[in-house]
Amino acid sequence: MMKSFDRKNHWDKIYNKYESNDVSWYQPTPDTSLDFLKQFSIPVTDKIIDVGGGDSFLVDHLLKLGYKDITVLDISESALNKAKQRLGSKADKVKWIVADAVTFNPDEKYDFWHDCAAFHFLTKEQEIETYINTIQQNINPNGILVIGTFSEQGPKKCSGIEIKQYSETSMTERLHKYFDKIKCITVDHKTPSEIIQSFIFCSFRKL
């Protein structure tokens, strides 16, 4: 990572500046992510981690569905604080981790690893490799991985930062060493300012 760019500071500033419903990734009901949970019949006792979860509403829905072992990780403490404030006393049922996905060193293994926000911000080969290694080492046998990124038809930047676009082929190739692709879908996300952004979501099972 370039020393001149402070990723943590960048995201804290964004979350301090904007309300939850003003950011491009605002989604009161993250249908795509919830559909993957249903598709794989993830038990409510499974350990779930949402990497780059920020103040996403996925955690609200997971709690409503009765999930009991939820971890939300984000580089921005400001983002996680917003989610905690929104959840009130329910926030105590969630594990909150302030960490960069690249340097995250889990102390437990997960059954369902969800990332709809972090992966496409990793543009350097070493960061991508490190993060994939972290996932494969800390996901249980038969664990499910779901990654959502901007597709090749999506934006080339987000929040002023360069991102890495993916296709079904490039995402599968990136992960094939440790994971077997189950399925990929493209999703058009409408931002609060009515712009359509093209995403690709892929699900994988650990080899």
Contiguous uncertain segments of 5+ residues:
none
Structural class estimated from helices and strands: alpha/beta
In one word, what is the shape?
Answer: globular
CATH architecture term: 3-Layer(aba) Sandwich
- Reading the helices and strands in chain order gives HHEHEHEEHEEEHEE
Average pLDDT: 86
The spatial strand order of the largest sheet comes to 3-2-1-4-5-9-8
Number of DSSP helices? 6
Q: How is the topology of this model organized?
A:
Layout: H1 7-17, H2 31-39, E1 47-51, H3 58-64, E2 69-74, H4 77-87, E3 94-98, E4 110-115, H5 125-137, E5 139-150, E6 157-158, E7 161-162, H6 168-175, E8 179-190, E9 196-206
Parallel strand pairs: 1-2, 1-4, 2-3, 4-5
Antiparallel strand pairs: 5-9, 6-7, 8-9
Helix pairs in contact: 1-4
Explain this structure to me?
With 207 residues, this protein is an alpha/beta fold. The chain has one domain (45-206): 3-Layer(aba) Sandwich (Rossmann fold), CATH 3.40.50. 29% of the residues lie in helices and 29% in strands. The chain is built from six helices and nine strands. The chain has helices at 7-17, 31-39, 58-64, 77-87, 125-137, 168-175; strands spanning 47-51, 69-74, 94-98, 110-115, 139-150, 157-158, 161-162, 179-190, 196-206. The chain has a seven-stranded mixed beta sheet with strand order 3-2-1-4-5-9-8, sandwiched between helices. A two-stranded antiparallel sheet has the order 6-7. The longest helix is centred in the middle third of the chain and has 13 residues, at 125-137. The protein is globular, with a radius of gyration of 16 Å. 31% of the residues are buried.
